[in-house]
Amino acid sequence: MLTANSKRARLFHDTSLANEDTYEPFLRLLWKGNWFIQEKSCKILSLIVSGRPKAQDALIANGASKSKEFTTIDNVLKGLVEWLCAQLKKPSHPSRGIPTAINCLATLLKEPVVRSSFVQSDGVKLLVPLISPASTQQSIQLLYEACLSVWLLSYYEPAIEYLGTSRSLPRLIEVVKGSTKEKVVRVVVLTLRNLLQKGTYGALMIDLGLPQLVQSLKAQAWSDEDLLEALTQLEEGLKDNIKKLSSFDKYKQEVLLGHLDWSPMHKDPIFWRENITNFEENDFQILRVLITILDTSTDPRTLAVACFDISQFIQYHPAGRIIVTDLKAKERVMKLLNHENAEVTKNALLCIQRLFLGAKYASFLQA
């Protein structure tokens, strides 16, 4: 007995369904008629081209000459992409336009021609806004298919460059944080695994706190073996990236994680002299995080190191006192002078002394 899939496969082996006369009416109807006709035409076309035999495609990839049939398929796929991008920009139907487009896109992006056409049509920037935490069943399915599309694009180098210039990575991480749907988490983790070794993605993932998120995900009870394997691979890849980071990158990662310890760089004068200007990045982001830690952390070691590092910044940066004062750090450090932990009070006192004395006399003070 033939299954539905086997029947469809046998149907598409009929070469009469792969000629121009088959596709042309559906392509025309994509742009005409009411929404029902447009939607059905899109889905029928997607089924025909995705279910066609791929043997000829493989021959062409291996150097055979392009046939008229294959050229027709390329044109059909490009026409479909044009319509899908139009729907993502301005949907023909208020509630069905975008879900239909994403559903078909998730099927068609397996095709190299579709990936190329989609990127050339600037489709990535239309796709990225759809990557956001979802709650209803319908929105979860839309999110899943949008993430599935990004996963398929993560195998295509030009698309990876486009994804890198968008906010796709922070959005993917936010989706993983807020999603309990296993299929959504799986496809996002697989995407992150693909992107990890590309360009600056690894460093950015570390900055966004992905190592800790992966540890949290691994502690959950997932049933999907592919997801568990991908999490392990992602964790190992992130560890390798951390090892490759420069000393300031490592320091930055430590601060952003909010867990500080007396690693050698904190008290190394060479580290501070060579990297003090790096603290100016992103409007003194790392210094601001250090100051925030004074308010938010309950770990005595972290508080002590944060106080010491702020005092180091005061000593080594030409405008250290002014910048730290402007960021209202003095009041926060003063509160720690009465901390129950001696290590915290010692380094809080050092920070206050350097803040009052300034760089000229700070070198006389010893930690």
Automatic annotation (TrEMBL):
GO terms for cellular component: vacuolar proton-transporting V-type ATPase, V1 domain. Keywords: Hydrogen ion transport, Ion transport, Repeat, Transport. It comes from the Eukaryota. The keyword Ion transport applies. SMART domains: ARM. PROSITE patterns: CYTOCHROME_B5_1 (PS00191). Residues 244-356 form the ATPase V1 complex subunit H C-terminal domain. The keyword Repeat applies. InterPro entries: ARM-like, ARM-type_fold, Armadillo, ATPase_V1-cplx_hsu, ATPase_V1-cplx_hsu_C, ATPase_V1-cplx_hsu_C_sf, Cyt_B5_heme-BS. GO terms for molecular function: heme binding; proton-transporting ATPase activity, rotational mechanism. Subunit of the peripheral V1 complex of vacuolar ATPase. Subunit H activates the ATPase activity of the enzyme and couples ATPase activity to proton flow. Vacuolar ATPase is responsible for acidifying a variety of intracellular compartments in eukaryotic cells, thus providing most of the energy required for transport processes in the vacuolar system. Belongs to the V-ATPase H subunit family. This is Vacuolar proton pump subunit H. It comes from Olea europaea subsp. europaea.
